[in-house]
Amino acid sequence: MRIILFSFIAWYIMLPDAMMAQERYQVGVCDWMVLKRQKLGEFELARQLGCDGIEMDMGALGKRDTFENKLRNPKEAAIFKRTADSLGIKVGAVAMSGFYAQDLSKKDTYLSLAEDCFDTMDKMGNATVAFLPLGGSGNDWSTDKAKRAIIVKRLHEIGEAAKARGKKVGLDTPLDAKGNLKLLKEINSEGIGIIYKFQTIIENGWDICKDMKKLGAKNIFAIHASNTDKVWLRNDSAINMPAIKQTLDQMGWSGWLFVERSRNTSMVRNVKMNYGNNVRYLKEIFNSYPAPDVPLDSIGREQKYVNTIIGRAQKATNELGITWTPMGQNVQNIIANRYFKLNDIYTERDSVKKSNKQLAEAVCDSKLYRSHFGFDADLSKYLKPHEIEKVKDVMTYNVVKVTYDAQCDMIPTLKEEEKTQILTWLKEARELAIDAESSNKKHEVFGKYKGRINNYLSKRGYDLNKEREEWYKRVKARGDKL
């Protein structure tokens, strides 16, 4: 028995820091902030974002006595649990975010609301922490003795109910560590602690690391590791995330880090870009971010060239809104590797050309043909057909859409079968252009197909010169440019 114990200790000591960090810290998002409050799709979205789990909300409260909680229905709850398990996504916490707008001192159904939350936690399996914001109680409760006494009493009851069921309730308060410690002492329940919120600390000008140390690891049940909406976490000068991790390491804290906000306001509605970026950054700092399934074929290539190609690939993943997600990393590498492959094929062709031009072209065509279909197959592991089309459009400067829209605008009387034929040829051109060795060669391919389209339309009886002249007039009249 002693030998087994010593072997386990030795194995644990030898664990890589990254594995130990993954055990200690887990990263998720608040489902109400990613527009998936109690929606089945939140688990798939969390997986795409690279999360370990989510903080699930209990639903809206409003003037009702109960949450709008669909998981009271056992069948619905079972579907949610099964879906989460199948995707490997945990429910790290359950939130009563309705109290952002509801006054705890006036909500007499507070205990039944808490019990509803605990029931939901049981149904989802993993969660032991509930989130209870006190924002709806206003800013006066901490100084109004009578109101504070009511809130403290109710929190004590909620805490004891949580403790009896093996749960914990983390509060969101406007207080610093000193104020929170005083509040927790008054509440006097092991079932009540704090869900630490960076945004509150920053807005009050307090020091996050010093405040966390003073509050103590045992009192921090989870962390909302984000600021108000402005920039992504990695670009936020108000948050020194490496120092925060070092502080939490020293404190011996472990638990969930949830992203609530920190959206880039220039793209505030882009859920995948905002939360994918923030989740990735937290996992880079607190864990080792998982290596992509598709390795980047960059060995032996000049770094400046590699960076340029990655930039090109990111234009496509940006268009899809997946750049900062694990899926986006794989798609980015597939696209970048495609550019590398094309470069290798054409470099080999140019080398062989010096001695045998015919052989060089034959070998080049053969390799292009095989790699062309391989590119589609690789992308299809991660993307849907319409998303693959977007990738190809970005890689060919959106010529298909620009040209098709221009043709339809120039000749408003085009028949549906004519529009279909034009689009078919343009997509055929795109398939050839995507293999071309340069932007000029890509445009040459489209140029040939535009000529084919013009010949087709002329044979169909259209006077293209007249159509073009009338089009120019219409464009000028509406103040647009060609």
Q: Count of helical segments? A: 19
Question: What structural class do the secondary elements suggest?
Answer: alpha/beta
* 3D shape: elongated
SSE order, one letter for each helix or strand: HHEHEHEHEHEHEHHEHEHHHHHHHHH
**Strand order, biggest sheet?**
1-2-3-4-5-6-7-8
- Rg from C-alpha positions? 29 Å
Strand portion, in percent? Answer: 5-15%
Q: Main β-sheet, in a few words?
A: 8 strands, parallel, barrel
Q: Report the strand count.
A: 8
Note the gap between the termini: 81 Å
* Overall pLDDT: 93
Low-pLDDT residue spans: 1-15
Portion of residues in helices? 55-70%
Describe this structure in words.
Helix 17 packs antiparallel against helix 18. The chain is an alpha/beta fold. The protein has an 8-stranded parallel beta barrel, surrounded by 6 helices. Mean pLDDT is 93; it is low at 1-15. The relative contact order is 0.07. Strand 1, helix 3 and strand 2 form a beta-alpha-beta unit. The chain has helices at residues 2-14, 17-24, 41-49, 74-87, 110-124, 145-164, 177-187, 198-203, 208-215, 241-251, 271-286, 303-320, 326-353, 357-380, 385-395, 399-410, 416-433, 439-459, 464-477, and strands spanning 25-30, 53-57, 90-95, 129-133, 168-172, 192-197, 220-224, 255-259. It is built from 19 helices and 8 strands. It starts with a helix and ends in a 5-residue tail after the last helix.
